[in-house]
Structure formats: C-alpha cells, structure tokens
Specification:
The complex is a heterodimer of chains A (about 850) and B (about 220). By secondary structure, chain A is an alpha+beta fold. Chain A is built from 30 helices and 21 strands. Chain B is an alpha/beta fold. Chain B is globular, with a radius of gyration of 17 Å. Classes of the chains: A alpha+beta (about 850), B alpha/beta (about 220). The interface between A and B is medium-sized, with 32 and 37 residues.
Chain lengths: ~850, ~220
C-alpha cells in the first residue's frame, strides 16, 4: 500500500464490509443459491397479495359506486319517503309537503323497464322539473335549457339519458328508445344526455306526468324526496312523516338507503374476501415450507457461520431478513398485479364479477397510496410470520454436531397434539357463535382453526403412519421407509402443504357440488310445468296484463295455467323489502307447488292468511312455522300465519308465498309476472309457441322457455359464478405439489452424498427414481387422506354455517365421490411423479462425484 | 482379477484435456495395492473408470475377464452391485438405518436375506469390533467406528474388488491405523483384490504395492 492510498479515506470501513459479507452469506447468498425456489416463494406471496388486493379494491370500488349511485338519486334531499313494488297513492304527496319543517318536496316515479329487442333493462325516473329544481338543480337546469327548443323534460315523448345509459345503449340525441310496458312497446325520443355528474348508473329521465301516463302508473308514486328547512328539528320532522305514512311505506335518509344497497351484497363480498385470504395464507405457508427446507439443507453452512462467530441473534435476524426480502419482493409484485387484475376484472365483469349484484354500475378504479402501502405491509408481514419458525430453527442449529462428518439434522418431528387440540376446541366454540352483522366471521374463524389444528397434528399423523410402513422388501423400499421415518420433521412440511391445499379443494368441491345438486333439484321442484311464459326479468314494468292472461289460458292445448305475481313490500319497521309470491296455493297442495322443508301440523288460525316463508325470511325475520305477523297488502294490513318454511335460492332478502286469488282480492292487482303452463299430452311445443305468438299479437318482448332450458341457463350462470373458485382450487393444489417438489429437491441436495454412495453400491437410476417416487407417494397419500377428512369437515362448516349465515339458504350434502377419488389418485400419482422429477439430480452423474469429501 | 490395459480418458471432446493416457494395471485376487499421486492428477478419474461409473476413451478394463468399457450403464451398475465394494472418505452410512442394516445393504441389493445373510453381517461386525453396537444408529458412533462399519459394508457381499478412496482422510492417526489394518485384514481374508487411493505414505505402506500416478502415467513405486 502506498502512502497515497493509505491517506485516502475509505467510504466503507472494513468492519462494515465484513458485516455486509457475513450478511450476504447468511441472507442473500442462500436465496441466490436456489433461484428457482426463491422465485416460487416470491410468486406465492405475490399471488396471495394480488388476489387479496384485487378483491379488496373491487369490493371497495363496488361499495363506493353503489353508495355514490344511490346518493346521486337523492340529490340534496334530507329524507326520502319510498315504497317498493307498486309504490303508494300520490295523495300522500301533499300531506308530506305540508309537514312543518319541510322546505321542498319532489315526487318521483321510478320503474325498471325492459327494453324490447335489446335483452336488457333500464331504470326510468319521472320527476316534476319545477319541484325537483330545489333538490337537483344542476340536473334540471341542464334539461331546462333545451325546453325552449322543445326538447326539454317537459317535451312530449322526450327522455333524457345519463351518460352511462347513452353509452351502453349507443344512443344519441334524436334517436328513438323503445321501452316495454306490460307487453307493449312505448316509444320515446332521446332529447338529450344528462351532465356527467348527474347519475352514475344507466338511467332514463322523463317528466313525471309523462311517466305516470305512458308507464301506466297513474295515481302512483314510488318516492318523495324531501328537503328540510335549515333550522328544522330533523327528529321531529321524521316523526311527523312517520305518522302520515300508510303501511308498507318507509322514510329513510339517503345515507341509510345507500347503506342498505351495500348491505345486500355484504355476504357475497365477504366470501370473496375469505377466498383471497385463503390465497394469502397458502402463499405464506409456501414461504414457510421453502424456508424450513432451506434451513435443513443449509444445516452445515449455518453451523459453519456459528462456528465463525455469528451469534444466535444475528442468525435469527439474518433469517428474518431473508424472509422479509422474499415477502417485500412478493408484496411489491403482488400490489402491482392486484391493481391490474382489479382494473381488468372491473372492466370485463363489473363490480360483482358477473354475479349480478351491481348490474348497471360502471365503476372506475382509483387506488390510494395508503392502500398500496397497507397491502405491501400485509404481504411482507405474512412472509415474515411464515419465516419466524424456520428462523428460530436456524438459530438453534448446534454448531459442533452439525459440522461433524456424517451428521444429519434432528430426525424426530416435534409433536404438537396439545396445540392441535386447542385449535380444534377453539374451532368448535367459534361454530356455536352467530354471524356478526350478517357476515359469517365465526364460521371462517372455525375453518381457520380446523386447518391450523390439522397442520399441528401432522407430525403425530406422519409418525403413526410411517410406523405402519413395511420396512422389508427390495432395498430401495427399505431405504425409502427408513428415510421417511428418519426425516419425519421434513416430511411433515410436505404433508402439511398437501393437506392444506387439498383440504381446501375438497371442501370447495363438496360445497359447490352440493350447492349445484341442490339447486338442480330445487329447480326441478319449482319448475313442474311444461312451459313458462314470462314478461321480464327484474323489470316490474313488463308484465302479463289481463288481456294476455286471457289469451294464454284460452289457447288450444292448455290443460292448466298458473299465473304468478312477484311483488316487493315493506314490513312495518323494516328497510329490506320482502318479496310476496302470489300464486295458486293452499295447504293441501303446498308441498307439490314449492319445496317445503317444514310445515305446521296444527290447523291455521281462522283469521290469519296462510303463507309459506322462505328460509331467508326465517333467518332474517324469525318467520318460523306457526309465526303470525302483520302483512301490509294494498291499503290494508292483514294477519298472516306461516304454515311452512320452504327453500328459495332466488331471493336472499326473503320471500313469502300466498294464494293469488287472495292477493288480488286484497290489492286489486291482477297483472302477473310469469305463467306456468301445462299442456295436453301430445302437444308439440313448437306448434304451441306459434299459436302463442299469433294469439298474443303484442309489440313487446316476452320469454317462452321450457324448464330444461331454464335449468341449463341457471346452471351455466352458477358455473360462471364459481369459476374463480375453481381457479383458486387448482392453484391451491399446484402449491401443494410444489411443497412436495421443494421438499424432495431440498432433500436430494442434502442427501447427495448418500445417493452417490448408493450409485456406487450398484443402485440403478431407475431404482433411485422408484425410491423417490415411493417417498413422494407416501407423503402425498397421507396428505390426501388427511385432506379428504379435513376437507370434508370444512365443507360441512361451509354448507351448514357459512352459507346459511351469509345467504340464508340450506342445501343438501352431496359428495362427488367419483371426482374426489379420481382427484386423490391423480394427486398421489402427481406427488410421486413430482418427487421423482424434482429428485432427478439424484439419478444424474453429479451425485456420483458427491461422495468425494472435497467435491 | 482386475486387468487395466492402456486406458485413456479426456474431457471436453477431441480437443479437450487428456487426464489419463495409456494407463495399465493388474491386480490379482488377494492383492492389495495403493495408488498415490498429487491432487488433480487423475486419481478420481481412474477410480471412476475402474468402478464403471465412466468409460475410457481407449483401452480395456477387464474385471474377471469382462470388459467394463464394452458394457452399457445398467450392466456396469449390476457389476458394481455384485462384484465391487467401496469405502469412502466421508463414510456415507445411511443415517436412518442401524449399522447392522447398513452393513446388510449390499446383501439386500443382491436379494440375499435370511439367516445366512444375518450371520454374514454379524461376522463382519464382530471382525471390526462392533457386534455389540449392531442396532445403533450411525450418529451414535465415532468417526473411526463409522468407518469400520463402512469397511464391513464394503465386504458384505464378498466382492471381487474393493475400492477405498481416502478411507482415513477424516480420521486421527490412531483410528486411521486401525482402519487400515482392518481393511487389509478383511481384503486378505475374502481374497478380494483391493485398491487404496490415498495421499498418505503411511496408508500406502500398508499395501502390497504402491503405484504413483503422474501426468506421465502410472508407475510402480515399490
């Protein structure tokens, strides 16, 4: 060293350099040594974070959009008086407008109509421009400017579209828009497009008089928006409003209304979130598996670092840093991917991923920095937690013993029977708890406890099963059995990986299969007729009026026809609508008409209307067999008695079935939503369809379908809804197989001297492959069998607890035995193949050199 | 009998590095020879060729009259299984088998089981002084004891040829001397041909003849 170099200050002192070198050896070096495994661990965390982040974003955006869309309907209103279904008599309006404290009142007609020829619906809103000016000034001003040109809201036959409606319907000013009322077409002219901030969802706006007249809603209103005077006593005004409301009409604030809209979808969104958390858990478990196996593989290396002076604390920190690096890298990739997936998912499927809850909502995604950060921390944290166990193990490697030639890692797996029992106990307790605000959180906690308990029970299970294995036979099997028994600790990681992933797959498979079979059986029961004619789906504006009903009933070939009316009503004190299904039914025939689960053997009270409540109505309102309650129908309130509980998969908010004649008598409403037709034997369906078209001769659309087609379409929608689940199941199984692959390849590295020795002794490559395949098959079999048992238990929790609490319906248990058997065999074979493939180095030439101590 | 005739081996194709050139050696049954040489001179290569783990580019390698160079890999593996025994520097006992089962491994590979096989194992363990530890696991033994088990394993199936690669590399001088004595005694007792590859002059001195492998070839030293 020259004087010049001696004088030059060093940027980093040699002590720090030494520390960096040591850190590199303990932290980054091992990751670089196994780039493939490191990459997979990073991707596992990335996948979990991406799924979690995307689901969170979709949920958040969907809820924001629904709330925003809901709020945009009310403008500056402080209260809204509203009723579902047929609305209420417009005579209520002046009473509301005159209540002290009310500064402005705006009547609204609101109706979902079918668009003939377009296979979709549109919400139409009729307002009084003069009154609405005080609650939605920007909206009315925009349309008022055109009044002078004869194209404003007040113009005859004119309709204004929201930007979303104009875009989705591809309509511009001057175009015609046909809507359907009953079975007739009603034509409007598009007078303009509303300003961008007006309504976020697709909406058509028209004059209230035009709406009442053209949509056949004379004398009816659906909503009255109220703005209060600045100094008004809100509570007192609300009380005054309540006093004048007839049965079935409610008063809400805009906030309450939007909360209700969001709450409808809470269970669905919670289930999506649970799925995403499962993905994150599986990713973290994979990190645990790879880190654990890395410690076993690097045992001697770690011992050397200890011998060179690396303290236990430093080793622990180095291992945790390694896990943090993997986690943060994975989380960074994950949040980027998650935002991409969310954007793509929202653009392609909407905010409900196709499930139909947010129909018509076109959300935009705007991600905040704090959201990115939160999920980054979550992903990194998950990896850190997963690394802690292996880090502690690395820090406790005994240097002297591990450096000795011929040393092998501790063989016995620690048994955690007590911890497993604790988790199982906690899971049982959680099962007994009710849902929290409609979310089946205790159910999910129970599932997590069951899984964790099973994982902690794996060492005991593995030890027991390995003890049963026959140690005799060909040399390769003797060695394989001895290896399995001798490395139970490593084996349990592989088994646990298979158990966790396969049990989740089994649970979802049984639950989805049960649901599908139950749905199919349910549709068989509720679709007994030969043919169904329906005016519209989720479009009360389209219906079968009396004329249509006469034509249908009088057609040749018709033996019997049941007309059914679906009507949403509000029970006293409630905000969630209850659907009344009015159809021909009585106590004698109820079991043949609907799938009754339980019925009342006692005779019905004489003064009460017999109704049959759905399971959701039972869960949400306590409508159990024998229950008597007030039922507002028409302008009166009658007593209703629950005669039975039936399964209804269509209305998660709850429904009751009552006799149609009674319904007509009480409400005067004779229109029908759908008709079920029984034909004379031998009647050709195509011919009948032709006769129906000729007989009806109406300009609107209606659907004619046979039960088989309805079932097919419904099941296709079901399969699409669960497509994401199937994908997650496949990913879970791949992760399980990777657990075996990681274990085998790690063991091959650790056992390379042993394999080299065996090759020297004359064990052929094929026999080595057979040995590894046997080990893989043994691990896979234990994981699969345990996974079947645990998965079966989880499926029962999903069916009887989570689904019931989330969606308030029951299903019968159906196990896809054949499918599970095939899957089990395939997975065991895949485990054997994966192990043999991952251990292919053991069959190569490199291991031959590994017998050399200095190789 | 092992008869090596003018074998050559290069790595890296025709223009590659020639590791062995024109090597010849004959070891008769009951003979025990040592091969010494500097690091990198080709001792491991020669050992791998003799073991049938690799094939020479030229020459013949005859074990009991059969040219290993002409056999396919599977056939060479079976020859190793039936006619050769190995002792390694790092012992390489299977950690989860008892020492008795480790010794019995070559017998199991040759489908030999039953009382005769068990007796053979017992006799060998007794010969190396470890019959009383038959059910112990390798990690319960010292380095010297593990190498004795390895010696017993190498001879369990009465091989025609025993190859020992630096068997005393991990042992202290006392243990090393004891192992070399056991190894020589067992080779002589079974009338096997034995080849010891070593850096140690003391170890080489326990054999009948010592060959030196250099870049020029294999020459008899004493």
């Amino acid at each position: 060293m020259t004087a010049a170099t001696a004088a030059r200050p060093r940027l980093i002192s040699s002590a720090w350099r030494a520390r960096f070198a040591l850190l590199d050896a303990a932290t980054w070096g091992p990751l670089r040594q196994a780039p493939g495994r490191t990459l997979v661990a990073v991707l596992a965390i990335a996948l979990g974070v991406a799924l979690g982040f995307s689901v969170y974003l979709i949920n958040r955006v969907a809820a924001d959009e629904v709330q925003g869309a809901s709020r945009s309907l009310f403008g500056l209103a402080d209260y809204a008086v509203q009723a579902p279904g047929q609305g209420f008599d417009e005579a209520l309006f002046p009473k509301l407008a005159e209540i002290p404290g009310v500064a402005a009142a705006s009547p609204v007609v609101e109706l979902q109509v079918r668009l003939p020829g377009r296979e979709r619906n549109l919400k139409l809103i009729g307002i009084d421009p003069f009154r609405a000016m005080q609650l939605q000034p920007a909206l009315v001003t925009a349309t008022a400017a055109e009044n002078r040109k004869g194209q404003g809201l007040l113009a005859e036959n004119s309709i204004w579209l929201s930007p979303a409606a104009a875009q989705s319907l591809e309509l511009d000013v001057g175009d015609d828009l046909d809507v359907q009322v009953a079975l007739d077409r009603v034509r409007f002219r598009v007078a303009g497009v509303l300003p961008p901030g007006a309504y976020r969802q697709p909406v058509g706006l028209l004059d209230i008089g035009e709406a009442q007249w053209r949509l056949r809603r004379l004398g009816r209103l659906d909503r009255v928006d109220l703005r209060l005077e600045p100094q008004a006593d809100r509570a007192a005004v609300r009380e005054a409003i309540q006093k004048v409301l007839p049965p079935g009409v409610q008063v809400v604030t805009p906030g309450e209304a939007s909360d209700d809209a969001v709450r409808l979808t809470r269970a669905y969104r919670s289930n999506l979130t649970a799925l995403a958390l499962v993905a994150l858990f599986t990713g973290a478990f994979l990190v645990y598996a790879t880190q654990s196996l890395a410690v076993a593989r690097r045992r001697r290396e770690i011992a050397l670092l200890h011998a060179m002076g690396m303290t236990v604390r430093e080793q622990l920190a180095a291992s945790l840093l390694s896990g943090t690096f993997v986690g943060s890298l994975g989380a960074a990739v994950g949040i980027f991917l998650g935002a991409l997936v969310a954007r793509a998912g929202l653009a392609a499927f909407g905010a409900d991923l196709g499930a139909g809850y947010f129909r018509g909502v076109a959300p935009e995604l705007d991600v905040q920095i704090v959201e990115y950060l939160a999920f980054f921390v979550l992903g990194t944290g998950a990896a850190l937690i997963a690394t802690y166990g292996p880090a502690r193990e690395a820090a406790s490697v005994p240097a002297a013993a591990a450096l000795k030639a011929g040393d092998e890692a501790p063989v016995a797996a620690r048994r955690h029977g007590r911890i497993a029992a604790l988790f199982f106990g906690a899971g049982l307790v959680a099962l007994a708890l009710p849902s929290i605000d409609g979310v089946a959180l205790p159910g999910y906690v129970s599932i997590a406890c069951l899984l964790l308990g099973a994982v902690f029970l794996t060492p005991s299970l593995a030890g027991t099963v390995f003890g049963w294995l026959d140690p005799s036979g060909p040399a390769w099997r003797q060695i394989a059995v001895a290896q399995l028994r001798g490395t139970a600790r490593r084996a349990t990681v592989s088994i646990a990986a298979v158990l966790v992933s396969f049990s989740l797959m089994v649970a979802m498979a049984i639950m989805v299969f049960s649901f599908r079979m139950s749905l199919e059986a349910w549709m068989q029961r509720i679709l007994p007729a030969d043919l169904y004619v329906r005016a519209g789906v989720a479009a009360p504006g389209a219906y079968l009026d009396e004329e249509a009903q006469r034509v249908i009933a009088g057609l040749p070939g018709v033996v019997r026809v049941d007309f059914v009316r679906f009507e949403d009503i509000l029970l006293p004190g409630e905000r969630m609508p209850l659907t009344v299904i009015a159809r021909p039914i009585d106590e004698a025939s109820a079991g043949q008409v609907i799938p009754v689960r339980r019925s009342d053997d006692e005779p019905a009270p004489a003064d009460a209307l017999p109704v049959w409540a759905s399971e959701a109505a039972l869960d949400l309102r306590g409508f159990d067999v024998g229950h008597v309650f007030d039922l507002p129908l028409g302008n009166q309130v009658v007593k209703a008695s629950v005669r039975g509980v039936w399964r209804d998969y269509e209305r998660p908010g709850g429904s009751i079935v009552m006799d149609r004649d009674t319904f007509v008598e009480l409400t005067g409403e004779r229109s029908a939503t759908t008709s079920a037709i029984w034909l004379r034997e031998g009647t050709e369906l195509d011919e009948f369809g032709e006769r129906l078209r000729e007989g009806l001769q109406r300009s609107g659309d209606y659907d004619v379908a046979v039960p088989g087609v309805i079932r097919q379409k419904s099941l296709a929608l079901f399969d699409r809804t669960f497509a994401v689940t199937y994908l997650l199941e496949a990913v879970a199984v791949l992760i399980g197989l990777f657990g075996i692959s990681a274990s085998t390849s790690s063991q091959v590295l650790a056992r390379r001297g042993e394999f080299g020795m065996l090759r020297h002794l004359g064990v052929t490559r094929r026999e080595v492959g057979r040995m590894l395949a046997f080990e893989g098959a043994a691990l896979g079999t234990i994981g699969v069998v345990a996974g079947l048992l645990v998965g079966g238990a989880i499926s029962l929790i999903l069916i009887f607890v989570v689904n019931r609490q989330s969606f308030h319906w029951t299903m019968d248990v159906h196990v896809p035995w054949f499918g599970l058997a095939v899957l089990s065999v395939v997975l065991v074979a895949a485990a054997a193949g994966t192990a043999a493939f991952s251990g292919r180095r053991a069959m190569g030439d490199d291991v031959v050199r590994a017998v050399k101590e200095d190789w | 009998m092992l008869d090596i005739r003018q074998i050559s081996k290069s790595y890296g194709g025709p223009a590659g590095r020639k590791v062995l050139d024109g090597i010849s050696l004959t070891v008769m049954p009951g003979e025990y020879v040592a091969i010494v040489g500097e690091s990198g001179v080709g001792k491991s290569t020669l050992l791998n060729l003799i073991a049938g783990l690799d094939v020479p580019d030229h020459g013949e390698l005859l074990l009991e009259g059969r040219d290993l160079a002409r056999l396919d890999e599977n056939a060479r593996t079976l020859v190793r299984r039936t006619r050769m025994g190995f002792v390694f520097q790092a012992f390489h006992l299977l950690p989860h088998l008892s020492i008795a089962r480790n010794v019995a491994l070559p017998l199991a590979l040759n489908a030999q089981a039953g009382p005769a096989a068990e007796q053979r194992v017992f006799d060998l363990l007794e010969a190396v002084g470890l019959a009383h530890r038959a059910q112990s696991l390798p990690r319960e033994l010292s380095g010297g004891e593990m190498q004795r088990v390895a010696v017993a394993r190498a001879l369990a199936h009465r091989p025609a040829l025993v190859l020992a690669d630096e068997p005393t590399g991990n042992l202290d001088p006392d243990n090393a001397a004891a192992i070399l004595e056991v190894l020589r005694a067992q080779i002589k007792r079974d009338n096997a041909a034995g080849i010891l590859v070593t850096h140690s002059a003391a170890a080489a001195a326990t054999t009948d003849r010592v060959y030196e492998l250099t870049r020029a070839g294999l020459t008899l030293r004493s």
